[in-house]
Amino acid sequence: MVPEHLVEDNAQLEAIMKLLDVGSAGVCFVGVHGMGGIGKTTLTTVLYNKLSSHFEGCCFLQDVRVHWQPPSGPLDLQKKLLLHFVGSSITDQIKDADGGMKMIKRVLCMKRVLLVLDDVDDEEQFEKLAGKFDWFGSGSRIIITTRDERIFTTQVESSSTENRNQPKEILRYAIQRNDNVEALSLTSNGCNHNLTNEELTALPKLRHGKRLSKQKTFTLVDWLCSTFRIAILKVTGMGGAK
After folding, report:
1. Is 221 in a helix, a strand, or coil?
2. Residues 6 or more apart in contact with residue 16 via CB below 8 angstroms
3. Cα 226 from chain centre
4. Which of 108, 115, 221, 239 has fewest C-beta within 10 Å?
């Protein structure tokens, strides 16, 4: 489900959906790129929820970069992907990342799937999670988000010899900043405050350009409200000893 605080950016959603061309045959790869905190994950989450009903199976792998750490990271993410489509009795058979690649193809090659690889920062991550277009059934759509557009320079090939001379290009979309993509309706302990759009969009971008989590934003607002309340009491003389 889309969190209630996410606000749709229809222009950018429509641009990505046009690239995806859901409903057409074949397998399509779309790369969504942009600087950190610009809203790639937010926009892709909305898109994922809008489109998921059109596919036989779906998987949203969030924070690939963070969870990729060897030696177990690659295999763990492959198993996490597969668990959206098969049970643990199948994934427990996989012993290494090469086996994971073979199992992904075996399980998904006849399925129309929607797969999102969020925050990819290395070609190896893409190659081991969605590396060949014939791993997926016709009509499948794979979305990759990244800060590094260079990842998309690679062309997606087939694992079968007869199709290796027909590589597929990864279509690209550069996210444009929209300060209304994410907003928070904040009501927290002891502080009921209707923030303006400018305040709402500024809060998650604090901490040197890094986006704050929703819980940390709540904590920040609580602290700010408490601080302002104390300051006002002192200025008005109402904060003295009783």
Report:
1. helix
2. 30, 32, 43, 47, 143, 173
3. 34
4. 239
State mean pLDDT over 100-105: 96
C-alpha span between 142 and 107 (Å, rounded)? 16
126-149 pLDDT, tens digit each: 999 998 899 999 999 999 999 999
Q: Identify the CA nearest to 142 among candidates 226, 55, 211.
A: 55
Joined tokens for residue 53: 């009903």
Residues present in the chain in total: 242
Residue type, 43: L
Strand partners, 20: none
Closest to 181 (Cα-Cα) out of 63, 33, 10: 10
With CA atoms as reference, report the closest residue to 154 among 181, 178, 130.
Answer: 130
The number of CA neighbours under 13 Å toward the Cβ of 161 is: 0
Q: Which pTM value belongs to this model?
A: 0.71
How large is the average pLDDT for residues 206-215? 50
Which comes out higher in pLDDT, residue 124 or 4?
Answer: 124
